[in-house]
Protein 1
Amino acid sequence: MTKAKSVNPLLAVAAALAVAAAACAAWFGWSWYSAAHSGSAAYSRARDTVLQSAEQAVLNFNTLNYHHATEGLQVWLASSTGVLHAQLAQNLRQEVRLVQQKQTITTARILDGAVTQLDTGAGTASVMVALDVTVTPATGSPFVESESEVGQLTRTASGWKLAELGYPSGSAASSPPSSSPGTVTPTPAPSPRRS
């Protein structure tokens, strides 16, 4: 009669722990993959992309050096689409002349931004961006303007671009005030600061 071999209890425990660890790793891996590829994660990534594009575009629209007016306004064109783009293109030469005449330099710094509406299916978004704009006039000392701007973005083949840019209703820069409190109505896009 053959004697049964005894099993090392430490080896049995180690094997059980290895199986449990592999099962946990598989479960956590699947959970992470599911979360990373879920609809909410895709929406969050789209929102982050929109906000980054919006903040860069608003920064571009509030930064202009009269020494390089043509190049600066070309950046505005590259940051815009739709009617806003068409208006800028139509008035480009006039804007360049005005900026050069006033000899103003503006530089912007983004303070904060938020996506207030996003429709990934339609490729549209609304944003609000707070910023400080330092204005250096031809004569006198530089000064800082703190403001908020609202924008509408449209997804294009080359990324998200501003379709509208203006001020929230009720702000010092906007006119006329909104008929219903709390709504955000873009006023026409800010033109280059020439004062």
Protein 2
Amino acid sequence: MELGLKDKVAVVMAASKGLGRASAEALAAEGCKVGLCARGEEALQETARAIIKTHGVEVHFEPVDVLDDAARQRFLQNVEDTLGPIDILVVNGGGPPHGTASAVSDEEIESAVASTLIPKIKWTRAVVQGMRERKWGRILLIESTSVKQPIDGLALSNTMRAGVAGFAKTLATEVASDGVLVNLVLPGSTDTDRLKALFEHRAKEAGVSIEAAKSAYGKRTPLGRIARPEEFGAVIAFLASEKASYVTGAVIPVDGGICSGLL
């Protein structure tokens, strides 16, 4: 299927590993020029080289702390100077640590707002006006299935991600008439480095192989397995494309059916 993404300029945050890298690779496979940022320079360089070698597209990459306003402004300007105006933004990043709703401290609350909610709003605001002026844009926010179904023990993550969803849904309505589409994508269990560490821990505790621990974890889903990163990336590429031109303000799980709610 031709997605109409050739030579579009896509920025992907936290792009060196995991879901960010899968998103960047899927967009590059469709012919997008990609601007990549992450904190770890070595992994970011490896990702950029792999994308250039495999897909032959233009890539601009910089190590960036997404909480740093000056670094964000510099990176986005460098992307535009190097690749052109930004058409697609994939907002990605980590979340707050574990904690129950009754036990979180003032400091943890403030840190969660500063690290998980505010930067996503700022990165989105930094590109959306240019998209509106050009009458085309895609903003995709990678969140969590907790937007639909809160996860026990992740009180602050549940709260911050719901806040991001509220912002995104509001923005989607405001910018729809300008051809800018805003959607949330909710990954479930995906075979990334973060989950590999969990499998290793569970395998050691249970005295089983890592593959056995991985299989048991995947059986929690109706599909009976965890996702491959490229399966998540494919959804990102589709939502960024011309083929998804009537999808905005949506909250889309890519979770193997594990969310049981109707809405």
